[in-house]
Amino acid sequence: MEISGVSGIVPISMYTKSWVSKNGKCLSRAQFPLVLAYACSIHKSQGLTLQRVIVDIGALKEQCVGLSYVALSRCTSLEGMLLVPFSLSRFLKINTSSALKARQLAEKEIFSKKIM
Question: Of 15, 19, 50, 55, which Cα lies nearest the Cα of 35?
Fold first, then answer.
């Protein structure tokens, strides 16, 4: 993934913190400033409730109708959601997908039947 012209390699500099202990010794710690994180597919995220998410809907055609909704609905607030930039034409592809048309046709047939 490329964001703002970054080529995929991001240098991470080591951070060193120094302090004086209670007994007067000078101490220091050197570490990389990383935060533990994880990623999962939209399918595996179903049922999760997350406080912060980064959603990459991408440009590819959706395999299952509704995956974009599942991805967007995992987050508890709009403030905790970051959307990776994408083209709005992405949603036009979803609305014209053959899976969506088949589901709409099946629903129409179900609702048109008379209930006894």
Answer: 15
Residue 98: phi and psi, rounded to 5, are -65, -30
In SS3 terms, the chain reads as CCCCCCCCCCCCCCEEEEEECCCCCEEEEEECCCCCCCCCCHHHHCCCCECCEEECCCCCCCCCCCHHHHHHCCECCCCCEEECCCCCHHHHHHHCCHHHHHHHHHHHHHHHCCCC
Is the whole model's pTM more than 0.70, yes or no? no
pLDDT band at residue 77 using 50, 70 and 90 as cut-offs: very high
How far apart are the C-alpha atoms of 63 and 103, rounded to whole Å? 14
Dihedral, 51, 87, 44, 41 alpha carbons, nearest 10? -110
Task: Count CB neighbours of 95 within 10 A.
Answer: 9
At position 98, the amino acid (one-letter code) is: S
